[in-house]
Amino acid sequence: MSPWRVIRVLSGIVITAAFLVLIILSVDLGAMFAAFGDLALPWLLVALLLLTADYGLRVVRWWWMLRALGSELPVAACVWPYLSSIAVNNLLPFRAGDALRTFGFRRQLQSPATRILGTLVVERLLDMTMLLPLFFVGLAAAPPDGIPRAVTASAIWLATALALTLVLLLALAPRLPALVIWVARQREFAERGWSERLQRWGNSFVETFGLLRRATDLFLLLALSMAIWLLEAGVFAAVVIGFDATIAPLGALFAMASGTLSTLIPSSPGYIGTFDYFTLMALAVVGIPESTAAAAALTIHAVLWVPLTALGLGYLFWRGRGVWAKAIGPKTQEDAAP
Q1: For residues 230 and 247, what is the distance between their CA atoms, to the nearest angstrom?
Q2: Coil, helix or strand for 257?
Q3: Residue 225 burial by Cβ neighbours in a 10 Å radius (0-12, 13-18, 19+)
Q4: Has residue 242 got a pLDDT over 50?
Q5: Most exposed among 4, 89, 141, 176, judged by the fewest C-beta atoms under 10 Å?
Q6: C-alpha closest to that of 126 among 225, 195, 194, 39
Q7: Nearest-CA neighbor of 134 among 229, 220, 53, 51?
């Protein structure tokens, strides 16, 4: 492992530990553990059903992107690649699950790795496009002095950066194929015989951004993304209600957006510490008692983490070494290294 990767892993562990300490210092642990006794299991089942619908739509959204780009495959073919990548991301650093989805399933998905990678980038852009507005909408549930200025300022900077990125991407999208050709024909690549392959890779990557320029695809993807994050807010609300607490819809939106956006902070795999702390704080800001908010935050994290990780890992163990072998070494002409 390179020194840079070692530093990233160690810094993630330190950040996770720091936020766990903040949680311990912020909450009466005895009251928090006592709050778990109030959890009504039927509401936990509701949360799991909402999570199932949430991730079902995530798979459909990803399938639609691959299908719109020319991959004729059933939606069922996308289920296990998606869940497996989530499970690996939950356990390993450096977004290893994204690498697995990109390289380990390209035959099953009938797509070159660069196209799959492009859909992952579009997926992230769609999520941020929904999450940031939902965060600002959810702010209406918080008292004016309840949110640190640094948090709202960070969200504003993120929203500004996202808006600029989308504007540049949409403006430059028609010119990207020409840029790919120019890069591929540089003498350093041409002399090594890499030009044709680099051009093919680059075109399969940039074609995914065309999804954002086609009105029908964009409208459908945005609608699916909105439904996905509303369902995830429903998971938060169901767990909180299960603790015999009351939360308004805007409060659930605010807690969901705060907890999810906190995963942008580098930490350990599974976002341990960061997700829990910001979810706890958001729930407390909208009026949930801190001990209940802490118990609810940990339960929400478990609901989001345990089933998806178990399903994804179960599939990988069932499939054995095949998926890992495909992820480690290219097997197709489309993705072979130059």
Answers
A1: 15
A2: helix
A3: buried
A4: yes
A5: 4
A6: 225
A7: 229
- How far apart, in whole angstroms, are the C-alpha atoms of residue 62 and residue 122? 9
Closest CA to 66 of 104, 102, 99: 102
User: What pLDDT score was predicted for residue 320?
Assistant: 60
Would the pTM of this model clear 0.85, i.e. be above it? yes
**What's the confidence (pLDDT) of residue 322?**
58
- Asked if 44 and 303 count as a contact pair (C-beta separation under 8 A), the reply is yes
Cβ neighbors of 246 (< 8 A, separation 6 or more) are 287
What band does 189 get if pLDDT is binned at 50, 70 and 90? confident
- What value does the mean pLDDT of the chain take? 90
The strand ranges marked E within 104-181 are none
CB 292 within 8 A of CB 34: no
Q: Domain boundaries in the chain?
A: 3-328
- Give the residue with greater pLDDT, 220 vs 267: 220
Record the tokens describing residue 39, joined without a space.
């959890």
pLDDT of residue 286: 94
Residues in contact with 310: Cβ distance below 8 Å, sequence separation at least 6, in sequence order: 87
In whole angstroms, give the CA distance from residue 58 to residue 234: 15
Q: How far apart are the first and last CA of the chain?
A: 24
